[in-house]
Structure formats: C-alpha cells, structure tokens
Design brief:
The complex is a heterodimer of chains A (756) and B (188).
Chain A: E1 7-11, H1 17-21, H2 28-46, E2 53-57, H3 59-66, H4 68-80, H5 87-92, H6 97-106, E3 110-114, H7 130-146, H8 164-170, E4 175-179, E5 191-194, E6 200-206, E7 217-222, H9 227-232, H10 234-237, E8 247-250, H11 269-288, H12 297-312, H13 316-334, H14 340-351, E9 370-375, H15 385-399, E10 404-408, E11 417-420, E12 423-427, H16 438-459, E13 462-468, H17 473-483, E14 487-491, H18 495-499, H19 505-520, E15 523-526, H20 529-538, E16 546-548, E17 571-575, E18 601-605, H21 611-620, E19 627-631, H22 635-644, E20 647-650, H23 659-666, E21 671-674, H24 677-682, E22 690-692, H25 697-709, H26 711-728, H27 731-755
Parallel strand pairs in A: 1-2, 1-7, 2-3, 4-6, 5-8, 6-7, 9-10, 9-13, 10-12, 13-14, 14-15, 15-16, 17-18, 17-20, 18-19, 20-21, 21-22
Antiparallel strand pairs in A: 5-6, 11-12
Helix pairs in contact in A: 2-6, 3-4, 3-7, 7-8, 11-12, 11-13, 12-13, 15-27, 16-17, 23-26
Chain B: H1 2-10, H2 15-22, H3 26-44, E1 48-55, E2 58-64, H4 67-76, E3 84-91, E4 104-111, E5 116-119, E6 127-135, E7 141-146, E8 150-151, H5 160-172
Helix pairs in contact in B: 2-3
The chains are: A alpha/beta (756), B alpha+beta (188).
Protein name (chain B): DUF4912 domain-containing protein
InterPro entries (chain B): DUF4912
Organism (chain B): Domibacillus iocasae
C-alpha cells in the first residue's frame, strides 16, 4: 500500500487510569476520552475509502478501552449519552472501540499510528536497550489489539538517531515521520525520502508553524475540548493531495528532534532525572529475578513502561500508584512468588492486553486434532469442583473451534455416549462400583478408561491428552505412552496439601501416584502460584514446565444459605483481615439511626491483630446487637454469607487489589467500596457498585441508605457487577490460556522427537 | 529518621501508621523511604556512563561508579585527590579514537558524589565520546568508564549530501555496517 499524508491528528490526551477509575458518566475524564476517540471514529466514518483520516494514538488508552473496565465504561457512557457522536457506531460494534477502528481501517477510511508506548524520547534513555524495547513493546501491544504489525510508530518529540530505523523495520513498520525542518527545504518537492535501511520517511510540521509546503504533513493536536471542532473542519483545513512523489532519495540524519533548528531543547536534565528512579527499577529486575518472573514478565514490562509514561508526563498520582503496583509484583517475583492473580487482573482491567506470546519460543504450530479430556467426574456427576472446571473448559474449547472428547466414569442415568454443546462425552467403568477399597476402585476405573481410550484414539484424530488430578492419571499415562501423545495434566489439589502432610499408607500411595503423573506429563497446569510452589517443593517438580492458570472467582450456582448467622438477617457483609488499613473502624461511626431499615445487622468476618480491640470497641459503644465481628469463617460459610447478604461493603483505607470485592460481585450482590486503589478499578461508581470516600462514615451511611432504600437499584448494581466479574474470570479467558499451553506442549513434544 | 521508617516498614506498618507514629506527612514518609531504597539499590547497580543529547549543543552525562570499582582503580593508580574526578569529552570525529588522538578534549572537574553533568557548547556535525576518571599522582588522566559515542546534528539541512554515498552503500551492502555512529541500542 502506498501512503501519502496531508493532515495527521495527534491525540494528545493524557491517559490517567486512576482518574478514569473514579469517574462517573459526567466527569471530564471520561467525556474527554469519549470525545477524542468518538469524534475520530465519526470523522473516519465520513472519510472516503482510500483517503483515510490519519491519527496518532496512545496505546495505553486504546488498551484500556479494550479491557474489561474500559468496555463497561464505554457501554455505560453510550447508554447514558444516547446521542453522543460515536454512540451509533459503537453500538454496532458492541461498545468496542477496537472493533470499530478495525472495521474502518479495513475500509481504508482510517489509519492509526501508535506513539512509542512510554512517550519518552527514544534518543534520551539513559538505560541500555530501553529504546529498542520500547518499540518492541509498542508493536507487541499493537499486534495484540489489531492482529498485525503497526504500519509505523510515532517517535516521541520527533527524536531520531540512526539505527532506530532498524528497530522500526524489525517490528514490521514501513515508514516513519520526522520533523520537516530537518529536511533540506528546497529539495522537498516531489522527493520520497528514505532511511538507509529502506524505510520511507515523511516530513511533518506543527499546524502553527505551517508554511504551506505541499509535501509536508501537518500535525494537528487533539485534546478533549477541541476534538469536535477539529474534525468538523478537517476537510476545509487542507485538501488531500493525491499525487505521490516518484523520486526516492536516501537520507541519513545523525540527530533530529522537533524544533531543533530553532535551538530548542529536546528534553531537560530535570525530566531525565525524574525518570531516573524508574530506570533504576528496571535494572533491579533485569539482574535479580530471571526464572520466576518470566510468567509475569509482560505485566512488569507494561507497568514499567507506564511508570515512564506517567513520569515524563508528570502524572504524579498515577505514577505513585503504578510504582506501588510494580514494586509489589517485583517484590513477589524476587521471592519467587509473584502474585499472578493480581498480575492478570492488572493486565485485563488496566492494560487490556495479555501479551502472552512473549515467551521465548520461535514458532508454535497451531494444534490440529482433538483433545482427549480425562476426568473422574463430569456433569451430571458432580462431586467436587473438578466437574464444573472440566465442563467449563471443554465447552469453551469447543466454542473456540477445538474438537473435544471427554472420557469419564459412568454415572447412573447418564448415557455411555452423548454430545452436549459440541462436546463428545464417553462414560465407562469402573466395573466394580461397590468396591470398598478406594484405590482398587480407582485402578478398576483407570483400566476401563484405558480400554475405551484406545478405541477413541482409533476413531478420532486425537492430538493431545489432558487429565485432571491423579484419579485418572494411570489411564492417561498409559494412553500417552503407548500412542506417543503429548500429556498435559492439571493438578487441582495434592494429597500433601489436602491433608497438610502425608500421615498414612493411603495418603502416601496417592502422593506417589501424583508424583508419577507429574513426572510423566509433558506439561503441568495448576490453578495458583502457591500450588506451583507446592509441586516444586513436595513433588520434586523443580524442573517441570508448570503453568499457572488461575481459576479466579467461582460462580457457584447452589450454595447452602443456612449458616450459624442466619438469625441475623437482614445483614450487610464485610470480610477481610482485622488490620487498620482494612478500615472496618469506619463502621463504628455510621448513622445507624438514619438507616430506614433499622433492623439491619453488620457481619464482619476475618481474623487479625485488631479483632479483640474492635470487639471491645463494639461493646464499649453498645453496638453488640448491630455489629458482629464474627472472626474466622469457613469457605462454605463465606459463600453462604455472600449469598444471603443485602450488600457487601469494603471500607479499606488502602487496598491494592481487592479481589474479594470481585467475589461479592460474582454473587450478584451490590458492592459499596472505598474509593481506593484496586477497588476503584472495577467498582465503577453507580455502574457496578457504589464508591465512598475512604474513612468517611457519613458518606458510607449515605451509600448504605441508597442501597437499602432502593432494592431495584441495588439489584441492578449487583447484576452489572456480576457481568464484570464474569468477563474478568470467564471460561473463554481460561480456555484461551489452556490452548496456549496445548500448543506449547505439542511443540515441545515435537522438538523432543527431533532430538532423539 | 529514615532508619526509623525502614524499621517500621519492615514490620509491615502501613504508610498511615508510620506517618502517625513519626508525626510527619505520609507523602514525606513515602518519599524518604523511596529515596533510601533507591540509594540502597544504587549500591548493587552496575557501573556505567551514559551520554544523551538534551539539545543540539548540550550533552547530559549520567554515570554510576560502583564504590568497589573506584576502590580498585585507586589501588592501581593512586589519585591526586580522591575526592575529585575528571569527566572528559573527546572530539573523535572521523578517527579511531585511541586515547591520545582526539581532535580536542574538554576536562570537567567533578565531585565524587556527583552522578550527572551537562556539557554545553557542542559543535555541529561532530562525534564525541565521554570518559570518567581522575588525575593520578603524576597528573596523568586515568580513565575508568567510557560512554558510547554520539554524533551531533547537521550544521545545515543540506549536509546530508556528505553522507549520501555512505547511506546508499549501506542500503545495498548492509553487512559492511554503517559508516556513521548509531543509537547506542544498536551496539551489540
């Protein structure tokens, strides 16, 4: 494709996720964002195909719009502002800016160019390799959002040194832009400039310095305020030129940046010094943590890039929060214990990308053929969580186009073979259902599964076997060995963990079976980082490829609603460690009298150093019949409490993550949360819950009243919250990650074949 | 004060609690702690010297000299004054710099505690390299660290003509390498 440019829109609106997180439908932050990108959409829609509107965009903002948080906000916005300029177009694309952009790009009505992610001048990094990495990261985010390499990457402040063209080329770029005053002024007409590595270079100048040289693109700066006006006059401002210069000329520049020939500075020493602390952080993880960090490497990388962005743009509050987040992940990684749940949440909420492909493998071939899933239980046979897990996984793998065969134990009333939602389900064994010896029964079942498995491998083109826990391990190992198939096993729990050690012969036998399964598997999947540690320490799996795919929040259908607290209904529920920063002391000062529902109770669960202090405080204030610090509650009780409460309140003064609020959302309960850190990122005020000022009891009382007095409204918030939690921890997400593990396993297995 | 903050922090006190105990603003607590951690980290960092352009005639030099490296240097060659270091900028345009053949050299006396310096008055279209070191007892410059080379911008927009041939050659025969100084990330 040949390019020529006359007008370029530079979207210059700072990306401030914290401000966006705390925003409502009317707040400036979201309105500006919607205006800038909304008018861009509209202008592109009106453009003639082949004469696209060209815009330089901030990939952090685009990623955010692509994330769970952004999509919810956009949808809420267009529902609220029905007549907004972009509302119709966005509705056509389910509220997804990225889809809308993609459609317009396919029609050649829009050309988007990303700015190098951190917005830091690429010639001014005082850390080796950072410029090349910045470009690489930019291209990676772009590729994930748009599925192809970026046509170009905009150089922050127009700063260029020779060699940057090589990095741009490596990322698949075809051209780039440089300030026009660096080019020889009388030779500009009809020349297509080219870098020594063969990339086209287009000169640009700022609109205020426009001198009507026809061959130079004009750069217009767009902010939230002027977006509307700008795009209206887009056509009038300058006619598109149609002829493309034919003569190519090579040009080498030692150094270029905007306004250089006016004697202006590229950057100040203060600006570099401001970013210095951030640069230091990078050194820390490059040198100290290598292996443990590789799984969260991409999130660390993005956090770091955002820290640089916030630092150079002087977004102080955002910087503090991003540095805290980076530090937290880094500290975890240094102790070989990164919080992967948090990392994934951060990626999906904040950055809107996963960047999983950044693993050090060359080409992973797409897996062809069916997946054979072995499981001890499968619906309608539900004993524990595994049935639900395998069921969810199987159906969403089918939804993404895989052929899936489930092989499981027979169950009274369920047929030997059936197809449900595209999943083939085969049921067989054990022969002696009444066998009292558990191990014998399991061996019996495995032999049955093995025999059926041979038949299935004969009839289907099976590419990989995936087993869940040791219960079906023997059959899986035998089938994989005899048919040279790759074996993946998911370890949901271990015998060692279930019993807090191995105390008898049965437990030891089971543990040894688990060890054999782990050793025989090509790859192992676990649901949490602690689980991975456990395998490494107690199951001699230090050398294994272990992948963590978090299960996230559980969406329990049937939870028993009866607990030892049932007599306290109706109640507000809260849970957390009994420490100061969880803010439970805020409850003491709420205006109980003002709450119309006067019989409302407060149940606060959790252990911690302040438990007794707060219990005494309750007594001192005579609130024993209102506020109940109930201490530790079991898993079942916790679920029941979430299920039966009127609303869940999280009054934390400091809360980096707040996954527990997501859990409440999974139970469709209205959430009232303090507007702090992680909570703000998914509790969207008046959309997926209510926010109040941390520590402000009066504000909390008002929000409680709002929920208790308007059951319909409370219900609506609960439903919206549920949607968001589902989106964050959906099976699609989990199956997509599992598929990547499959591809990886097949690839490794093939490489082994090459070696032997 | 910092010691106290670090001690409380290591006992898992929150920022608010520490601020309360020491009765200083939270922001200040955080700042002090961060500065301390940054300094602590500095001790482990690698020694290096960077030079980046602030403008067409200003170069910003930033270095980290590990105390161990400095100690080793002092061991090899006794310094004239152990508190004063020498930052030197050499004009190395079109030569293979060997330490003695620079077209010109500028010397800047810096304090041992300094970490950065801005050099002004660079000429256009010249190549420079920086070194940090000190004067020995014999008044001879003894280098410890060297930066990557940099090249300043053209004097006139038409100066590209002088490199046109080299650019074309590189385009056709990239394996021979470019005939100019490139971005430091290109150095392998």
């Amino acid at each position: 494709m040949k390019f020529s440019f006359s007008n370029i829109m530079m979207i210059d609106h700072p990306f401030r996720p914290l401000a966006l997180a705390g925003s409502t439908m009317e707040s400036e932050e979201i309105v500006d964002m919607m205006n800038v990108y909304g008018y861009l959409l509209k202008a592109a829609e009106r453009a003639e195909p082949g004469k696209p509107v060209t815009a330089v965009v901030n990939l952090f903002a685009l990623g955010w719009l692509n994330g769970v948080r952004g999509k919810t906000a956009v949808n809420a916005f267009i529902n609220h502002h029905v007549n907004h300029v972009s509302a119709d177009l966005l509705r056509m694309h389910n509220g997804s800016f990225i889809h809308a952009f993609k459609a317009l790009m396919a029609e050649q009505k829009l050309l988007l160019l990303p700015v190098a992610l951190s917005h830091f001048p690429l010639t001014a990094y005082t850390i080796k390799g950072a410029a090349a990495e910045d470009l690489k990261r930019t291209a990676a985010v772009w590729k994930e959002l748009f599925g192809s390499p970026p046509p170009s990457i905009w150089l922050p402040r127009g700063a260029y040194a020779p060699g940057l063209d090589e990095f741009l080329q490596q990322e698949g770029c075809q051209f780039f832009f440089l300030p026009s005053d660096a080019f020889p002024s009388d030779e500009q007409q009809d020349v297509q400039w080219m870098s020594p590595r063969g990339l086209n270079i287009f000169p640009y100048q700022f609109e205020e310095k426009q001198n009507d040289k026809e061959s130079t693109a004009i750069l217009f700066t767009l902010t939230g305020d002027n977006a509307c006006h700008r795009f209206k006059n887009l056509d009038k401002e300058r006619a598109l030129k149609s002829d493309i210069p034919s003569a190519k000329r090579m040009i080498h520049f030692p150094l270029v940046y905007e306004n250089m020939n006016d004697g202006q500075a590229l950057i100040t020493a203060e600006e570099i010094q401001r970013c210095d602390l951030i640069f230091q952080l990078k050194k820390e993880w490059d040198e100290k943590c290598t292996s443990s960090i590789c799984e969260v490497r991409s999130v660390l990388d993005l956090e770091w890039a955002y820290c640089v962005y916030a630092s150079i743009n002087e977004l102080e509050e955002e910087l503090i929060s991003a540095v805290d987040s980076l530090r937290y992940l880094l500290d975890g990684a240094r102790k070989e214990f990164p919080d992967l749940d948090y990392a994934h949440q951060r990626m999906r909420l904040h950055y809107g990308v996963t960047l999983l492909s950044e693993q050090p493998i060359e080409i992973v071939e797409e897996l062809e053929g069916a997946i054979l899933l072995l499981t001890w239980e499968y619906p309608p046979n539900i004993v524990g969580g595994m049935a639900r897990h395998v069921h969810g996984l199987a159906e969403s793998l089918v939804a993404s186009g895989r052929e899936v065969i489930v092989l499981t134990a027979s169950h009274h009333g369920a047929p030997q073979h059936e197809v449900i939602s595209g999943v083939h389900i085969y049921r067989t064994g054990p022969l002696h259902k009444g066998e009292q010896d558990f191990l014998k029964q399991t061996s019996d079942l495995n032999l049955c599964l093995f025999q059926k498995g041979i038949e299935l491998i004969r009839n289907y083109d099976i590419a990989l076997i995936h087993t869940h826990d040791w219960l079906t391990g023997d059959a899986a190992i035998l089938l994989a060995e005899q048919h040279q198939l790759p074996l993946v096993s998911t370890i949901h729990a271990t015998e060692h963990g279930r019993n807090n050690g191995l105390h008898n012969e049965l437990q030891r036998t089971i543990a040894s079976k688990e060890k054999v399964l782990i050793a025989s598997s090509d790859t192992v999947i676990v649901c949490s980082q602690p689980m991975k540690e456990e395998l490494r320490v107690f199951y001699e799996a230090a050398e294994k490829d272990i992948y963590v795919i978090p299960n996230g929040v559980e969406f329990e259908g049937n939870v028993s609603t009866h607990t030892r607290f049932s007599h306290l209904k109706p109640f507000i529920f809260s849970i957390g460690r009994m420490v100061f920063e969880k803010g439970f002391q805020t409850f003491f000062n709420i205006h109980l009298k003002n709450l119309k529902k006067e019989n409302i109770q407060f149940i606060i669960a959790g252990k911690g150093p302040l438990l007794e202090t707060w219990r005494e405080e309750v007594k001192k204030r005579g609130l024993e019949n209102k506020i109940h610090f109930v201490g530790y509650v079991s898993d079942e009780e916790r679920k029941a409490l979430f299920q039966t409460c009127e609303a869940a309140v999280f009054p934390s003064l400091y809360e980096p993550f707040g996954i527990v609020a997501l859990e409440a959302m999974a139970f469709q309960k209205p959430v009232i949360a303090a507007a702090t850190g992680g909570l703000k990122s998914f509790v969207l005020h008046k959309q997926t819950g209510l926010l109040f000022e941390p520590g402000n009891a009066e504000d909390l009382s008002a929000k409680l009243a709002a929920i208790l007095d308007q059951p319909d409204y409370a219900n609506e918030l609960g439903i919206n919250g549920h949607e968001m939690a589902k989106e964050l921890y959906s099976w699609n997400h989990i199956s997509a990650q599992t598929e990547k593990v499959y591809d990886q396993t097949v690839f490794i297995k093939k490489m082994e074949g090459v070696r032997t | 004060m910092v010691d106290e903050i670090v001690r409380l922090k290591s006992q898992n006190f929150s920022w608010d609690q520490i601020a309360g105990k020491l009765s200083i603003p939270k922001q200040e607590v955080k700042q002090k702690w961060r500065r301390f951690m940054a300094e602590k980290m500095e001790l482990d960092a690698k020694s290096e010297l960077h030079a980046v352009f602030l403008s067409r005639e200003r170069l910003y030099c930033k270095w980290h000299l590990h105390p161990r490296l400095l100690k080793a240097a002092f061991y090899c060659e006794k310094p004239l004054n152990s508190e004063v270091l020498d930052l030197r900028i050499f004009d190395i345009t079109d030569i293979y710099f060997n330490g003695t053949n620079a077209h010109s050299v500028t010397c800047i006396k810096i304090n041992k505690q300094d970490h950065s310096w801005t050099i002004k008055g660079l000429k256009r279209n010249r190549s420079y390299i920086c070194e940090i070191g000190y004067l020995t007892k014999n008044y001879i410059f003894w280098p410890i660290l060297r930066s990557h080379p940099v090249h300043t911008s053209y004097e006139r927009n038409t100066d590209y003509i002088f490199k046109l041939r080299a650019a074309e050659e590189f385009y056709h025969h990239p394996l021979n390498g470019p005939g100019w100084i490139e971005h430091p990330d290109c150095l392998r």
